[in-house]
Write a structure and sequence with these properties.
Number of strands: 15
Structural class: alpha/beta
Order of helices and strands: HHEHEEHEHEEHEHEHEHEEHHHEEEEH
Largest sheet: 9 strands, mixed
Oligomer: single chain
Radius of gyration: 21 Å
Number of helices: 13
Helix content: 40-55%
Bound molecules: 3,4-dihydroxybenzoic acid
Strand content: 15-25%
Shape: globular
């Protein structure tokens, strides 16, 4: 109470209405339309769920969420970030559906000293673009290297990699290949498919001729269903070629619609809606009740992004300055629906379990069922650079 009175007195002295002084804006910039709309849909639903469950009052402030659709176009992201900081006085920016949009906001975060909480984009280098970037999603090296280790240990000797041709795809390809070769495996061919309007069919035809034991794939969230359809149509499964990848391809937003062709696909990732923990069961139940669809890895990262912001604002006792918030985020630890997580104080990236999962049918629904855990994996890209 005493603190509240003090804040009111300061606000009045500054000639500002006290109610306005206590509102803090968080800007969520995500693609709500266009080819990456599922990312925006998942993130928005999860952030709103977190706020509905935890209330909008933190350390004497009222959190106001402002959602902006950048359509995944970096020039729009940049303008929206500038407007949120300059006009809405946003104290944190969140979201960033694809790597180029996370890059676009970085100079604004640096200049305005406003935290940029990346809850989707996953190219390793992103957190190095500004000291104000913190990430609650994952990195492609973090998810890809464990897939290579598992493949090498499970009789897979020859692999063709096929990835979307931009930052995260390049990371996935590089870290899968280097790890797999170190484990004694061979990469037969490395294929990159355009980000815009991808047509996998001609590439997959080529893969069939290569006769690898497996295809390793990375496509961004939202592109998995089309990839899977063309994998089946080109007859790769029938030719005895296994499909492995990071969990982006068997995204929980789409996996249930992929049909039995997806059964048995093994991937490595940090989140499955099927993750067996009390925290996840509660999260999935509440999310499905509020939205009528299943949360995916984008949702859990949005939920945790808001959890991290709430934690930081509590820790600073309501101080919204960027340096104070970032300092409070470094080293934060909590139990996410995905399992235990920690923000690496050195890299500002998330340290988390990576799970090996297989698509299976449970009660008539397709899920990524986890069967192995690699505990508390740090982004290997930054570890290697030390
Ligand atoms: C990125 C986007 C995705 O949808 C995804 O699943 C992984 C990475 C990205 O652009 O960084």
């Amino acid at each position: 109470m005493k603190a509240m009175l003090l804040i009111s007195a300061v606000a009045l002295a500054a000639g500002v209405a006290s109610a306005a002084a206590e509102d803090v804006t968080v800007g969520l910039i995500v693609p709500m339309t266009g080819p990456f709309a599922s990312t925006g849909k998942q993130e928005k639903a999860a952030v709103e769920l977190y706020m509905a469950q935890h209330g909008d009052k933190v350390a004497g402030k009222t959190i106001k969420l402002v959602v902006k659709d950048d359509t995944a176009a970096p020039d729009i992201t940049k303008r929206l970030a500038q407007e949120l900081v300059a006009n809405d006085h946003a104290v944190a920016l969140m979201g960033f559906g694809i790597t180029p949009t996370a890059f676009a906001a970085a100079p604004i975060a640096t200049e305005a000293k406003v935290p940029e909480i990346v809850t989707a984009a996953a190219t390793a280098v992103i957190t190095q673009k500004s000291p104000y970037i913190v990430r609650t999603s994952f990195t492609l090296p973090q998810a890809s290297a464990p897939m290579a280790d598992w493949a090498a240990k499970n009789g897979i000797k020859k692999v063709v990699t096929i990835v979307t041709d931009y930052g995260p795809g390049a990371d996935a390809q590089k870290w899968f290949a280097s790890t797999f070769k170190k484990d004694g495996g061979a990469i037969v061919e490395e294929i990159r498919v355009p980000l815009k309007n991808p047509d996998f069919a001609p590439f997959l035809q080529r893969v069939k001729d290569d006769k690898p034991d497996a295809v390793f794939v990375f496509v961004p969230s939202g592109a998995g269903a089309q990839f899977m359809k063309e994998f089946v149509e080109q007859g790769l499964g029938k030719a005895g070629i296994k499909l492995i990848g990071t969990g982006d391809v068997t995204d929980d937003d789409q996996v249930n619609g992929m049909g039995d062709a997806a059964l048995g696909v093994v991937t490595t990732h940090h989140y499955s809606a099927d993750h067996d923990s009390p925290e996840n069961k509660a999260f999935v139940a509440a999310f499905e009740k509020a939205n009528g669809f299943r949360p995916n890895f984008m949702a859990v990262a949005g939920y945790d992004g808001m959890a991290l912001f709430y934690h930081a604002l509590e820790a600073t006792k309501g101080d919204t300055s960027g340096p104070a918030l970032i300092a409070a985020m470094k080293g934060a630890k909590w139990t996410s629906p995905r399992g235990p997580v920690e923000i690496d104080p050195e890299t500002r990236d998330i340290v988390q379990n990576i799970y090996v999962r297989k698509v299976e049918k449970k009660n008539g629904q397709l899920y990524n069922v986890e069967f192995e855990t690699i505990p508390m994996v740090k982004d290997p890209f930054k570890a290697a650079k030390k």
